[in-house]
Amino acid sequence: MISPNTHPVVGAGLRPAPTRDTSDGTGGSKTRPTHATHGTGGSETRPYARRDSSVNYRPMSMATPSHSRTVTVSVPATSANLGPGFDCLGLALELRNDVTLTATGPDLAYDDPRPTRYDITVTGCDADKVPTDARNLLVEAADTLFQRAGRRPSAVAVNVVNRVPVGSGLGSSSAAIVAGLLAANALSGAGWAEGDLLRLAVAMEGHPDNVAPAMLGGLVLGVLPDATHGPDELILRRMEPPPLSVVIVLPDFTLLTADARAALPPTVSRADAIFNASRLGLLLHALTGSHPDCLRVAMGDRLHQPYRLSLIPGAAAAYDAAYAAGALGVALSGAGPSLLAFSSDSGAAIGRAMSEAFAAAGLGSRTWLLRPSAVGATTA
User: Fold this and answer.
1) What three-state secondary structure class fits 292?
2) C-alpha dihedral over 153, 135, 26, 141, to 10 degrees?
3) pLDDT per position as a tens digit, 184-226
4) Could you give the C-alpha distances from 92 to 52, 69, 170, 205, 216, in angstroms and in order?
5) Which one of 66, 87, 127, 349 has the minimum C-beta count within 10 Å?
């Protein structure tokens, strides 16, 4: 277990894979059962399904049956970046997806030519955006863990109660990855430790700022491997979340991750790098030391927000409106299009002000009044 206020080093092995489009999550809003099958899941077609011998590979017992085994995983939404914390800082939120996987058929060796059948039912929000076949990212994550375990069920029933909107900047893809890995870890009996699962989740997502708080809860700072502290080490620092309300306003606008990334300049100036470094230090001080008066300055950013806000109609006006309504700090949530605002009260007035700004730009919006979550993913 990775405990608060420690510097866990999640050991050697998996390198980050290319960043995924967050529209591949497991959100959903209406029941859509289907039958999805896949074969051996080779690395030719499933880029995250390669077996890596440097991971703590523990094949499960060949004699273990998989009839009627059920596991339920609850995973929180997450907000990444938080202003200056681009690709390294994330916060878990009290908005959770509940996913139940039941192995309904006998186990197969992973390289058995017979496919696994996934029966996927999704309820909640945004179901029309969710693949209900083997393209579903939850299925891909589960399949990746099954391959490393060496065995997989021949049939799996998947039920998703989704509350995290898809493609919103609230970590729907990371919630899917974490849910799939944790559920498959339990179903397979692989017994992977939390640190191993975190490494695999980061390798799939490509950055730690959503998957780490989704798994650990709280506020998490992640440092990716480099030559300075070891090419195969991932450092995560989990902190208790701030005692503040979080207002999320999601405009009715689609911002593709590829477009959000393409808007960023290839290089930044020394002045902008210094600006962000100083704000990130101040932001951690403000959020962990109960200094909300620092948040407006601390959440300043020059690496991504100035470029991305302009892609979303009404976002700049909503950003200003939140501060005018009393927000302590405002930022894009992830790559957007959601905006996040910290508040010392419920934040209802702030939410209304942001929604009105989007409406003036011709966009409807949805609002959530939330709290940070100290609890990450749970398994039952």
Assistant:
1) helix
2) 50
3) 999 998 889 999 999 999 999 988 999 999 999 999 999 987 7
4) 29, 29, 9, 16, 8
5) 349
* β-pairing verdict for 234-239 and 245-251: unpaired
Q: What is the DSSP letter of 313?
A: T
Do 179 and 141 form a contact (C-beta atoms < 8 A)? yes
User: Which amino acid appears at position 374 of this protein?
Assistant: A
Q: For the whole prediction, is pTM greater than 0.70?
A: yes
Q: How far apart are CA 364 and CA 286, in angstroms?
A: 32
Please give the structure tokens belonging to residue 74: 């609850």
Q: For residue 66, what are the CA distances in angstroms to 1, 143, 183, 191?
A: 26, 15, 13, 15
Residues 6+ apart with CB under 8 A from 108: 114, 116, 151, 152, 153, 154
Instruction: Name all domains of the chain by residue range, CATH numbers in brackets.
Output: 9-238+375-379 (3.30.230.10), 245-370 (3.30.70.890)
Task: Give the whole-angstrom CA distance, residue 187 versus residue 146.
Answer: 9
CA distance 199 to 69: 26
Tokens of 189: 């009996």
* DSSP per-residue string spanning 64-96: ---TTEEEEEEEEEEEEETTTEEEEEEEEEEEE
Q: Which residue has the tokens 């399949």?
A: 143
